[in-house]
Amino acid sequence: MERIPVTGDIVRYRGKQGLHAVRAAIVTADVTTLDPRGVEIGAVPALDDASHVHLWVFTPGQLGGFHEYNVSPGDSPGTWHWPAAAG
Questions:
Q1: In what order do the strands lie in the sheet with 10-14?
Q2: Are 35 and 59 in contact (CB under 8 A)?
């Protein structure tokens, strides 16, 4: 069974722009922690399924990061994946 991400998990996010850099990210919402009232009033996007998450993506520099919403798993730009296991 594939592991489902939960709020607080550290994942890797592949950027959608430029060199598609891979960055560290933290899961800020999953299907069990997403507030349905926030979705209803349009304050936060819905998630398509249990493998999709909202992320805070960490970046170097003054801004420190950015939000990404309803991110699916994968290896293509704009997706998240688990970090490689420590060897």
A1: 65-71, 53-58, 22-29, 10-14, 79-81
A2: no
Question: Which pTM does this prediction carry?
Answer: 0.90
Question: How many Å separate Cα 68 from the centre of its chain?
Answer: 6
Pairing relationship of beta strands 10-14 and 79-81 according to DSSP bridges? antiparallel
Do residues 26 and 54 touch, judged by C-beta distance below 8 A? Answer: no
Residue position matching structure tokens 């999953």: 30
Instruction: Express each pLDDT in 4-31 by its tens digit.
Output: 999 999 999 999 987 889 999 999 999 9
Sort 37 into a burial class: Cβ within 10 Å, 0-12 / 13-18 / 19+: exposed
DSSP state of 16: S
| Angstrom distance (rounded) from CA 21 to CA 51 | 21
In angstroms, the CA 9 to CA 26 distance is 6
DSSP assigned state of 20: -
